[in-house]
Design a protein that fits this description.
By secondary structure, the protein is mainly α. It has one domain. Helices cover 82% and strands 0% of the residues.
């Protein structure tokens, strides 16, 4: 691995490790719908988990996609609903990175996993994103709108990524998917190493 690649991975890990998981601060003034729609894209931990799950679903095949996408959407709804009663920002980032690391490691290794196991991982990923992307809304209707936008955003992004990976036909496309998985895996490992070192001091 060259120096530029190592620097890129380290920068990604630091960005993920230090980014605050706040639903309202990055997008003040744009409205509940656009906040919910864009939040999973601009928060690095949520984006990494979403991308990793999308890569894994597409890598494993159509059966995994047909089962995994609904499980992901169900997880998002469960996470958003649970977040109303339980504030989990303290652990949601670690959970998101854990899902990203597990999904990306499976893609990198090339292991073929059962559709049920992948669906469960997608469900956990959805719950983690939902917990992390809690809308800061003043009314129930606003929170519902933001939550629906988050479900729409994550589901569509995962579906698009899975479809792109699923349609890979050339050797370089296979390599590109594995490389993307390895970058996410490395970012996850660096994050957990950073957390481990930080807590031991």
């Amino acid at each position: 691995m060259n120096g530029r690649a190592t620097t890129g991975i380290a920068a990604a890990a630091i960005l993920v490790a230090t980014a605050p998981a706040r639903a309202h601060a990055p997008l003040e003034g744009v409205g509940e719908f656009y906040t919910g729609l864009l939040h999973p894209i601009i928060v690095p931990a949520e984006l990494l988990a979403t991308v990793a799950v999308g890569l894994l679903l597409g890598f494993c095949g159509p059966k995994h996609c047909r089962l995994g996408i609904p499980f992901l959407a169900a997880g998002l709804i469960l996470g958003l609903a649970a977040g109303v009663l339980w504030t989990a920002h303290g652990i949601s980032t670690g959970l998101l990175l854990g899902v990203a690391l597990a999904a990306a490691a499976l893609v990198t290794s090339g292991l073929r996993v059962r559709a049920g196991a992948v669906a469960v991982l997608a469900l956990i990923g959805g719950v983690a994103v939902g917990l992390d992307a809690q809308p800061d809304a003043e009314t129930f209707a606003s929170a519902l709108l933001a939550g629906a936008a988050t479900v729409l955003s994550v589901t569509l992004l995962t579906l698009i990524l899975a479809a792109l990976v699923l349609n890979r036909k050339k050797f370089w496309q296979e390599v590109a998917v594995r490389v993307a998985g390895s970058w996410i895996t490395a970012s996850g490992v660096l994050y957990f190493t950073w957390r481990l070192v930080g807590t031991s001091q």
